[in-house]
Amino acid sequence: MDISDWRQKIDELDVEIVRLINKRAEAARAIGELKKTADLPVYEPRREQEVFDRVRKANPGPLADAELLHVYERIIDVMRTLQRRDL
Ligand SMILES: O=C(O)C(=O)C[C@]1(C(=O)O)C=C[C@@H](O)C=C1
Fold it and tell me: Where does the record place the Chorismate mutase domain (predicted)?
């Protein structure tokens, strides 16, 4: 494969990633609404640690665990912002 083939692959993967990240956001928003009803805090550090542990276990590489966790920290940060925005 040449560069343009790999770029096309990336373009296709990005469409999938965008779809999945938005599905994750829908779930986070639903949780946010339930938390609001139950008067629970948006930030749940123990749950976030579980997510990070599960992500680390699922990591097939080539990303290092620390690199993947960096991405996930950003994702969860955005999810928290979404939950607070919708409150
Ligand atoms: O599981 C929750 O309680 C969520 O709100 C979802 C989520 C996540 O995006 O994974 C977001 C914020 C919390 O701090 C923990 C986890």
Answer: 1-87
Q: What is the CATH number of the domain that holds 35?
A: 1.20.59.10
- Is the interface score ipTM higher than 0.95? yes
Q: Is the CB of 6 under 6 A from ligand 1?
A: no
State the Cα angle at 53 between 61 and 83, rounded to 5°.
105
Domain count of the fold of the chain: 1
Could you tell me the residue range of the domain that residue 50 belongs to? 3-85
Task: Give the model confidence (pLDDT) of 2-17 as tens digits.
Answer: 999 999 999 999 999 9
Contact by Cβ (8 Å): 23, 36: no
